Amino acid sequence: MRTRSHRYSREDGEYTNSTHYDPQNNSLDIGFQRLKIFNCKIYPDMSSIKFLFVHQNNITNLPDASLLPNLTELNCSNNNLKNIPFYRKLITLNISFNKVTELNHYHNSDLKYLDCSFNPNIALNIYLPYCKHLYINDTKLTNIKLSRFRKLKFLDCSNNNLHDIDPSNSLLELNIQNNEMTELPLFPILNVLMIDDNFLTSLVTYPYLKILNASRNKLIHIDSQPQLTKITASHNLVSKIGLMPKLEIIELDNNNITNFEIFGVSKHVCLQFNPITNLGVHEQAFQNIEELQVDYKMYEKIYAKCYDSIKSINIFACENKIDEKIKKLEGVFSARMLKFIKKMFLKTEFQNRGNMFGQITVRICDEYFKNDDETTMREKCIMTLKNISKLYHKIIVVSLIFNY
C-alpha cells in the first residue's frame, strides 16, 4: 500500500508519491519528504508498525509511544528532533543528525543498535546491557564508560574530544579517529582498530587485530601484531616495528624506518619517504607482491634486485610532499612562483622532467637574476637547475607493479 505525500511537489507541480507502507512487514517509510509535522491521521493504523523510517525530514516531534506499541526499529535521522519518546520494544534506533541531548528513557532498555552521531553535546549516561552497535561520533564527547555497554561489539566514537577510553572484553571494532588519545588499553579480541589523528606514541600487541589504521599520530614503536593483515600508519615517527608475519597490505610511508622486511604474503607495500638503509625481501615476496611504492632514492637501490620481476613502473609526484617542501621555500620565492613550481611538478611526466627543470629555471632566472651580469646569472641558473632537479627527486613516488 502506498499513501501520497502531500507536503512537497515536483518542479512540474505534480506531487511525488514516495511514502511506502508494507503491511506484510509492518513497515512505514516516509523518509526524504521534508515533512515538518508527523501527522499520524493520514497514515495506516500505527499500532501494528514495527519498522518506521522518517529520516531526512524537518520534523520536530515524533508520535507518542502509545501510538507505536510494537515499534522495534526507528530511523529518524536528519531531522530537528530534541526528544525521543520511549518506545518500549525498540531494538534499533538511529537518531543521528538531530539536536537530542539525552536518552535517559532508554536506560536499561533492550536496544541493540544505537546511532546518536552528530547530536552535539548529547550525554549518554545510560546503561544498555544488550547494545552491540554504538555510533556516537561527532558529538563533542569528552568521556565514555564502556562498562555501561558490556556486550558492545562495534563502537564509533571518532571526531570527539576523548583523552582516554575504558578497556573492553567484548569489542571487535573500534573507530576512535580524530580525538586526543595518548594511549590505549588492551582490547583482547579486537579485530579492527582505527585511531588516525591522535597522539599515540606506541601500540601494544592486540592478539586478534587484523586491520590497523593509525596514520598521523606520534607513533615511534608498534609492537608485534601476530594476526594483522593490513596496516596503515603513515605520517608518524615509527622507527621500530614488531613481527607481523601475515601482513598483506602495508602503508608505512613518511616515517623513520631504517630496516624493513617484506614477507612472502605481502601484496601492497608503501614505504616511500623513509630513511631505509636495509630493505629485506623474503624469497617468496616477488611471487605474491602486486605493488611496491618507494621513493626515488630507494628505487635506485633496489631496481637491480627486482628488475626481472617488474611488470611496469609508474612514477608520479606526491602532492603532500610537494606542499611540505615548498612551504620551506616561502621566504625564498613568491607565492606565484611556488604555485608555478608545484603545477609543473604535478603535471609533468617523469620522462619529460628535463624540459620541466629548464622551464622552471628560466622562469626563476628571469624573475630574480635578470639584473646580474652574464657570468653571475649563468652560475645562478646552473645552481638553480641542480636544486630544482634535487627537489623534484625528493618528492616523487615510484610504484613498481609486479604480479598484478
TrEMBL record:
Keywords: Leucine-rich repeat, Repeat. The keyword Repeat applies. SMART domains: LRR_BAC. PANTHER family: PROTEIN NUD1, PTHR47566. This is Uncharacterized protein. GO terms for molecular function: signaling adaptor activity. Residues 1-20 are annotated as: Disordered. The keyword Repeat applies. It comes from viral metagenome.
